Amino acid sequence: MIEYGVHVLLVVLFPLLMLGVIGRVKALFAGRQGPRLLQPYFDVWKLLHKGAVYSTTTSWTFRAAPIVSLATLLTAALLLPLASGSAPLAFSGDIIVFAYLLGLGRFVTMIAALDTGSSFEGMGASREAAFAALAEPALLLALAIVCVSASAISFHEVYAALPWGSWGVPHPEILVAVVVIFGVLLAETSRVPVDDPATHLELTMIHEVMVLDHSGPDLALIHCGSALKLFLFAALLVHLLVPFPTDSLWLGALVLCTGALSIAVLVGVVESSMARLRLVQVPQFLVGASVLAAIGLLVVIVRGAQ
Amino acid sequence: MIWPFALAMAIQLASGIAALLFRRSNRVALAIGSAGSFIASLIGVTAAGQLLLSGGSAVAAMPWQLPVGELLVGVDALSAFFLLCIYLVSGLSAVYAAGYFGDPSDSKAVAPKAVAPKAVAPKAVAPMVFSFALLVVSMAGITLARDGVLFLVAWELMSISGFFLVTFEHERQEVRSAGTVYLIASHVGVVLLLILFMLLAQHGGGFSFAAITAAGAPGPYLANACFILALVGFGTKAGFWSLHTWLPEAHPAAPSHISATMSGVMIKLGIYGVLRVLSFLGPPPLWWSVSVIGLGVVSGVLGVLHALAQHDLKRLLAYHSVENIGIIAIGIGVGLLGQSTGAPVVALLGYAGALLHTLNHGLFKGLLFHGAGSVLHATGTKSLDELGGLGRTMPITAVTFLIGSAAISGLPPLNGFISELLIYLGAFRGAAVLQSEAGQSPGTVAALAVIPALALIGGLAAACFVKAYGTIFLGHPRTAACDGAADPPPGMRLPMIIGAALCVAIGIWPAAALRLVERPASLIIGGAEPLPPLGQFVAAIPLVALVLVAVVIGLIGLRYALMRNREVAVGPTWGCGYEAPSSRMQYTAASFAEPVLEPFAVALKRPVHADLPKGYFPAAANYEQHAVDVIAEYVLAPASFGLLSALRKIRVIQTGHMQLYLGFILMTIVVLLVWYLPGGGG
Amino acid sequence: MTGYAGTLLVVLLALDLYMISTSRLGACIRATALQGVVLAVLPLALTGISSSTPTSEVLRLVAVAIATLCVKSGFIPWLMFRTLRGRGESREFEPFVSLHLSQIVNGALFGGAFWIAISLPPAWAHIHTMGLGVGLATLFVGLYMTINRRKEISQVLGFLVLESGVMVIGWALLRQPSFIIEVGALLDVLVAAMVLGILATGLQASPDEAGVGEEGAQA
């Protein structure tokens, strides 16, 4: 019971802190002092207290989309183990349900973007469709690496089967999976090099332009959703990289939070040190990630055949 | 147990013939036909469902006049499952047809204003009603046939009635040529099926399925030959890639409820044929599963890529049928993989996923084609670039189309996700089983290739349907065709609502649908060991759906509470300060698909004809882009032209002179006499 | 120590993938330099150094590593950067097969290489399977780069990658560094360096002399 409480608490309260950390890191690289770490919380609070402006072209789809996409992310959060080794909803096949719930959120966001009848949102939606179609195979291949080595299709079984007992021997396939999932994180949460979240030129945005017309509490829900997506991917990475203390809940939560914040710092560093890829190069990046994950799978097969 | 189906077939056929008798009055013919179809479907669905849940099978023999074959009919779990699909989709389509053709003055599609400004006498629908009845009866006959000859007769009947249905609007040139393509493709398949059944009959000593099964599994050469013949012969009907070129021509040409039936059920009879032949052939070698998985992956990916490039709604949906047949083939491949490696759970998951996807696809493709028909009915056009903003004027069509789109993209918590989940689980388990035994690399690679392939297909399908739904129902109307659009009459609304409700129901409570699939899947796998119930693999899905719905409701409540006393303003969409927005500034379907298709340019050629202004000043410009079907353009067209020009050389003997033909007759008689008589019979 | 061989081999493959996916020549050259570092450390990881190894063996391994490092990560990249600067070009224009498709083709080549490595008959059981797979894959990638790219520098890079692949195959087959293989490989690399040197100085003398590829078309 306490486990579930901690899980829900982490899901609701923690993700926005990651956005704050990323902003701070980017500011430090740029030589500025930067916004305070808790700034995203204040932003969301402000937005929740505002009214809204809706476009005359939009319909119920536009009003429903922020709710449905945040709901899919919250449900997906219940499938992913956070502070302990297993999640509130754990069953065989939950990895696939997790990936497809994220897909449902994307679908609804894209439809809401087309609902405004504006070419900016249409542009964002079509680019998002293209990149999402290529990022999904990369994500599932990376997850397949750890699933096939563990012969299980559920998060808690996969995490339990990770080879932490033999620390001395490195496992390159897990490193490959981690690198590929990090690449997918950059693509799905619209970070440089795939998309620049700080630009406000409509022609260069992807994710930002899809939500251009949302305002007020809708926009607050969308911010929470994107922070939550970042947190979920970071949690996935932390569990794969670090041997998790499954016996103590608070120690697990501490490790998770520290790990997630380090990943936020890493994202900030990557964003500050790379330029955004040209749009035609993003599919190459994603296909390259898929091929890298396929290499990892080949290594798993070779290891199995030896 | 066969008599309910016989009764259903009799009622349907009787109503078809009665409709022909009353062909003077369209209303009466349509009413009789639809009522008969509906009653037959009710009987068929309940009988099939009962049979699937309780198990059992039966065979019966009836007197037969022809010298070859016997009239053996029978029903078992596999037949019952396909009968369920047939009657479900055809029943919904029959009700839809009653609404579609009911009041021709109401529909822009039946009497399009652009074609004939003067009043057009409504077309006689009685032949179409009769052909529809014949189609459903022949499809049911195919699944009930237990004899090779009867099977082929029913297959041929299905093809021919399909031809009459496709060419309903035969006054249009493109419909006539689509019908021709369909007829040729069907018969190419039938030739291969003839050879297949003759080989099987030779092996079994008779055409009846009982004799063939009793003769045991054929030797490796015969089995491989039968496998390839079945795959190509039935694949022509099913629409595997490279055999699919007739699908995007025939399905758009037919009226919408016919497209729904053809896409939803008729092509699945190809799958039924493949599964039935597989059950004759014994334990499959590994290369069968690898080749079926490869075929499925290619069909799925190329099908959805071509769908993305289409501007015509029905052609887009037809290519999606190719894609979903690819997914079903992947499921069958995973099932074969399980059978050849002795992993019955993998086989169960693969076949169950394939069968469930057959049912699911019938439901949501029927729903989508009905939605396309409603759009056509309301606006007179099915071109995506002429529509827009119909969600406001046609809310019910929009909501059901949205549910169908989400279902076909495989998104939870709808039914498409359940069948894809089963196939994923089968593939993972297959890879895990094979990986622990060394030396099975092609199988492991095939099983692992299923995972990114299904993910890619799902992502691209979602992109395609966001494009289709967004272009048709969202935004602003792009042309005047959308004026006066409204939701269709209740006869057309009801099947769409029922279809959408079933999609949601199977998605949220999959265990019930899986109980229908268990018996057919175990029948295909054969073997004596009991298989685990499928419900355990999807036991948690209702809980996840419940959590999702609960969170949605909670967030709706939260937002309502927040916005209660807030100021909510409306205004035009932000256009970066541009003062005169027009509906043509919206994203078009082609522009939406462009970034998605660009990385795949090697697989999909889209020639562009652009006449762009030169110089510095605005001038008239022209831009045209269409998608080229690689198989049709670069394989079939050159082959058929080559064949025709070769045949043209032979045609010189047909000079039209009577004397020459008499001379041929004389020559033939002389040759035969010389050949046969001296030896006392050659 | 031996466990790290797997990680090093995967890093090698990842560098191969990076080189296929980028059109920036400078990045390719740096990737080759990194591959040189990996190749230098690889024999140490494959054979392992423990307390029982004789000192002469250890010295030899270290000497070979340093030599590989100097040549492959120091001298050759320096020479190539000089050539790049001399020509003033920094990007590979559209190769024969687009970069998108190249990634897929090379993925298939990786798969083929691993399949060959797995399906060798049992008489070859003593070889390091993953090493052979990675070596073959690198060799295929080098060949592919040589065939696919239009500029001479990229073709020389492809040749160097091919060379690395051959070295890895040699170590995988023999399981211990053999003097002959290393010397042969380093000599080949030296030949490549000389060719490059000729290219570099040759072009500085006559910039109008069009080589095979883009320069003539660009002029």
Characterize the main sheet of chain C: none
Please name the two chains that share the biggest interface, counting residues whose Cβ lies under 8 Å from a Cβ on the partner chain.
A-B, 87 and 83 residues
Uncertain regions spanning at least 5 consecutive residues of chain C:
204-219
Total helices of chain B: the number is 24
Quantity of strands of chain C, as a count: 0
Task: Give the mean pLDDT of chain B.
Answer: 87
Spell out the helices and strands of chain C N to C: HHHHHHHH
Poorly predicted ranges of chain B (pLDDT <50, ≥5 residues)?
111-120
SS-derived structural category of chain B: mainly alpha
Question: What global shape of chain C is seen?
Answer: globular
Class from secondary-structure proportions of chain C: mainly alpha
Helicity level of chain B, as a percent range?
A: 55-70%
> Assembly type of the shown chains?
heterotrimer
Proportion of beta-strand residues of chain C: under 5%
Give me a quick take on this structure:
The complex is a heterotrimer of chains A (306), B (682) and C (219). With 306 residues, chain A is mostly helical. Helices cover 69% and strands 1% of the residues of chain A.
Folded structure, characterized:
The complex is a heterotrimer of chains A (306), B (682) and C (219). Helices cover 69% and strands 1% of the residues of chain A. Chain A has 12 helices and 1 strand. In chain A, helix 6 runs antiparallel to helix 8 and helix 10 crosses helix 11. Chain A is globular and about 60 Å long. The two termini of chain B are 51 Å apart. Chain B is 68% helix and 3% strand. Chain B is globular. In chain C, helix 3 (55-87) runs parallel beside helix 7 (179-205) and helix 5 (129-148) runs antiparallel to helix 6 (152-174). Chain C starts with a helix and ends with a helix. By secondary structure, chain C is mostly helical. Chain C has helices spanning 3-21, 25-47, 55-87, 99-118, 129-148, 152-174, 179-205, 214-218. Chains in contact: A-B, A-C, B-C. The interface between A and B is large, with 87 and 83 residues.
